[in-house]
Amino acid sequence: MGNSQPVFAFMSRLIALMSVLAFTSCSLFEQEVEPPPRADDKIEIPEGLSSLSTTIEVPLDPMRRALEREIPRRLYTISKSQADCIPSQRTEVIGIAIRSPTIRCDLTGQVNRGSLSLRGSGRDLIVTMPIRAEVKGSEIGGIIKQETATARANVTARVRLSVRKDWSMRGDVDISYSWRQPPTVEILGQKLTFADGADERLRSVVSKLERTVEREIAKLDLRGKIAPVWERGFTVLSLNAENPPVWMRLTPRALGYDGYYASRNALSVAMRLDAKTEIFVGDEPEAPGADYLPAMAEGGNGQGGKLALALPVIAQYSVLEPVIERALAKRAERVFKVPAIGDRMIEVQSVSAYCTEGNRIAVGVEFKAWKPGEENDPATGTVWLTAKPVNDANSRKVRFVEPEYQVETTRFTTNVIIEIAKTRDFSSTIEDALTQNFEDDYEDLLAKVDRAIAETELGDFSIATDIDRVSTGSLTAYGEGLFLPVSADGETQIRYAPR
């Protein structure tokens, strides 16, 4: 009995110590671990506009045909009796001043035009109308039965265009004409001209041409051509159908006019479209609502054909999950070297990815692990890796800094799961998968943007673009997705081709 007390005390302490160890063991290996909290913050896209400066080609053929149709070939006829063909003239005979009588005649004839020409030269539209006149003078002074004079003239209209704030067009027309070969004959040693009779009617032809040109300029109806295109500009374009789906959303803000240039067969109108342009990776975004065509924007830069796009590239986390899962599954075909516990094989069962607090990405990988040859006794659980994605300026290579690990397990296997997760081999597979996804997919993303714009027809307009310079900002994780700000510059051409 004397020795029972110390033995009892020792056993009590041993039981207590074992109880503490058992409790500690449970807290270490059976502790419930909640997944990292989900962030729900929206992507903060800086307000900015893309400027799409383009040149719209308006062919001159429709206007040329309209003028040809509206101006008749026979401009007018001449029929005037007892016209003053040769006016009275003062002469001296033997020092005596005398005045010859006015010689009268009957004038008849016709004035016809040739083919109209319409061409551009810088800021001028030039309409040229060749005229051929044939004038007959009969019963000239009661002496000469008839004389015929032919003449040629050119009527030239120079038109300067202007565009009003409401997108209507007007033309300032300046018309002149001159006789290349005036209607003149020589009778009794004197030149008899019929120009006065021709000029009187020719002035009315010039007025008609001026009114016709002004009317056809108004018919260009620039607003009517632009408005439907403006409305259709509020759209979502598919850049890539799948793996992953990529979308571009256009939201026009303003439309400006930067002048025009007239060439031989076309009117090149420089336009500037200011639009919000967004790139989405994943689900198709909602199309923006269309607004009415606004009044012409002020402040043109005169640099037609320049493309400057602000492209917020947004990747949804659901797109990244299969990328990570495929990479881990491929790596799982080989043994993982785990220094603390020895070699292990793994099998990935699921992957989850989302944004957590502090603009960090949370990646949850559920998998089972076993010693080679002992697949029937696996450790199972989910490891959560949270880290902050970063990239260098103008680089799509993603790095993950400040990594942290948590483990959910269903058996006393926390140490096995976390030791595997902590290996550089495991974490680098996840990082490389995301890096490769951004680097490879991004390389052709701008080509898809370029191609989507170039292959898109909006009504009577065809668009051709070429992106030649790209810069990227800093990658940031938001609850809504991964956000990479991108700017692209290049050249673009929009041609108007009415069907």
Query: How many strands, what sense, and barrel or not for the largest sheet?
Result: 9 strands, mixed
β-sheet strand percentage: over 45%
Provide the CATH topology of one domain: Bactericidal permeability-increasing protein, domain 1
Structural class: alpha+beta
Per CATH, which architecture of one domain? Super Roll
Distance between the termini: 116 Å
DSSP helix fraction: 25-40%
Low-confidence stretches: 6-31
Approximate shape: rod-shaped
How would you describe this protein?
- With 499 residues, this protein is of the alpha+beta class.
- The protein has a domain at 60-219: Bactericidal permeability-increasing protein, domain 1.
- Helix content is 25%, strand content 47%.
- The chain contains eight helices and 23 strands.
- The chain has helices at 4-29, 61-70, 195-218, 222-232, 317-331, 414-422, 424-443, 445-454; strands spanning 50-59, 74-86, 90-93, 96-99, 103-113, 117-121, 124-140, 144-163, 169-181, 184-187, 190-193, 235-240, 246-262, 266-281, 306-315, 345-356, 360-370, 379-390, 399-409, 457-458, 461-472, 476-478, 481-496.
- The strands form five sheets. Strands 1, 12, 13, 14, 15, 20, 21, 22 and 23 form a nine-stranded mixed beta sheet that branches. Strands 2, 5, 6, 7, 8 and 9 form a six-stranded antiparallel beta sheet that branches. A four-stranded antiparallel beta sheet has the order 16-17-18-19.
- A hairpin with a 3-residue loop joins strand 13 (246-262) and strand 14.
- The longest helix is centred in the first third of the chain and has 26 residues, at 4-29.
- The protein is rod-shaped and about 130 Å long.
